[in-house]
Write a structure and sequence with these properties.
The chain has eleven helices and five strands. It is mainly alpha-helical. Helix 1 packs antiparallel against helix 3, helix 6 runs antiparallel to helix 8 and helix 8 packs antiparallel against helix 9.
């Protein structure tokens, strides 16, 4: 069996694409429209938050970071996807494949960590309202945002570097885009280090953040049940959109994780492709809406 370093492979073939005939132009138009809507929704909210000093509060700054990440993740996927839909040969160069792996995995990591920070912010605001301003200072907000992005960047640099050094025994990926696990599955060299780092990365970037988020929301729920009606209304108006965003994104990631780990050959290619794209397409479109509750929206309009 041929063994080669990933740097010696010139291209990778994406085998999950299927023949759509003339419908490929319809799919192209639908995805183009979806990408435009994502850009417009997220950019609009970023501009609104940045242009209004009254919105320069922790909650909105964390939302701004979330929207920037969704633009980043979408840009790492959609232009590539649109080119592949119009192409008859679904191949990608190795350097670009690893660039996409870096972008998409960093998007996933930043998204989870950003949701952790947002849940912590709501926890302080609802459970410790009198101490909120002293605990969530502008300096701390900036530090949390910087740490979220910097940690994600360094973690993914290590992840992609480990995969790039693997010896590969093939160049066919059963996906419509590049993911790290797809490269690892092609390896015929020892992947122990990759697997260990993958477990550590999953724990730090997904499991611990999810546990932290659920812990903070359990605390918030406890306070709501024992607090006043005003406290409950505040919790519902600010926490419900974040919880829906979390569940929406987590569901998509969970489906993708299951697809990577189990044999999905019995599932139609179109359905598999749709499920794979879910966590990369729908959260960036719906999160700008879900993250702004009616109370927050009214406040923003009033600020304008």
């Amino acid at each position: 069996m041929l063994r080669m370093n990933s740097s010696q492979v010139s291209y990778l073939t994406l085998s999950a694409y299927f023949e759509t005939g003339p419908f490929k132009y319809l799919f192209f138009m639908i995805l183009t429209l979806l990408y435009i809507l994502i850009i417009c929704a997220n950019v609009s909210l970023i501009v609104i938050i940045c242009m209004n000093r009254s919105l320069h509060e922790p909650m909105y700054l964390f939302l701004c970071s979330l929207f920037v990440n969704e633009l980043y993740g979408s840009t790492g996927l959609f232009p590539f996807l649109l080119l592949q839909i119009l192409s008859d040969i679904h191949t990608v160069s190795v350097p670009f494949c690893f660039l996409q792996i870096f972008c998409l995995h960093m998007y996933l990591t930043v998204q989870f960590l950003n949701l952790v920070v947002m849940s912590y912010d709501r926890y302080l605001a609802i459970c410790y309202p009198l101490q909120y301003n002293t605990r969530m200072t502008t300096k701390r907000v900036a530090m949390l945002i910087v740490v979220t992005w910097l940690f994600s960047f360094l973690a993914i640099v290590v992840l992609t570097s480990l995969s790039f050094s693997l010896q590969l025994c093939g160049n066919i990926i059963d996906k419509v885009f590049c993911l790290n696990y797809s490269i690892v599955k092609l390896a015929c060299s020892d992947t122990s280090v990759n697997n260990i780092y993958g477990l550590i990365f999953t724990a730090i970037a997904i499991i611990i953040p999810l546990s932290s988020i659920f812990y903070t929301y359990i605390k918030i729920i406890n306070v709501c049940f024992s607090g006043s009606k005003q406290t409950r209304q505040k919790a519902v108006s600010t926490c419900t959109p974040q919880l829906v965003s979390l569940l929406n994104f987590s569901l998509g990631v969970c489906v993708e994780f299951l697809q990577n780990r189990f044999d999905m050959s019995s599932v139609p290619k179109m359905l598999r492709s749709f499920l794979s794209l879910y966590f990369l397409t729908f959260p960036p479109l719906f999160n700008p809406v879900l993250s702004i509750s009616k109370a927050q929206y009214d406040y923003m309009i009033h600020a304008l």
